[in-house]
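Researcher: Next entry in the queue.
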Amino acid sequence: MSLNKEVEVLRDVPLFSKIDHTKLKLLAFTSENLIHQDGQFLFREGETGDAAYIVLKGKVAVFIRTEKGPVEVAQLKRGDVVGEISILCDVPRTASVKAVESVQTLKVTKDTFIHLLTEFPEIAIEIMRVLASRLNKTNIQLREALTD
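Model: Structure for this entry, 148 residues:
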């Protein structure tokens, strides 16, 4: 995927929609474009988080470990961001993420991600919204699991 195509995808990501074209181009240029084959892990639960990933193409599945084995809790697609929790909170990865099909991602290092948040506070607000939404969904799933 060309740099300009990456910038187009980034423009569609709600987190980055208000950032000007030049800054998005810099983000795309300083990030690593990766291809993950079907079944390949982007990262595993418990690992140290050194980057967040933006899904440019394809889908990934998010799994958590349970006593009964791994449980899929979400599927993410183009424009979604994954892996931000461990770099924001300095905690090990809270889930495993695996390519469902051939997936193209943009790997944004922790330093670059934190710099973005510092320079663009509106991104931090949007991340809080995304994380709050995920927490709400998790609470609903937990409530349903406990009442079954």
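Model: The first helix runs from residue 3 to 12.
Researcher: Noted, moving on.
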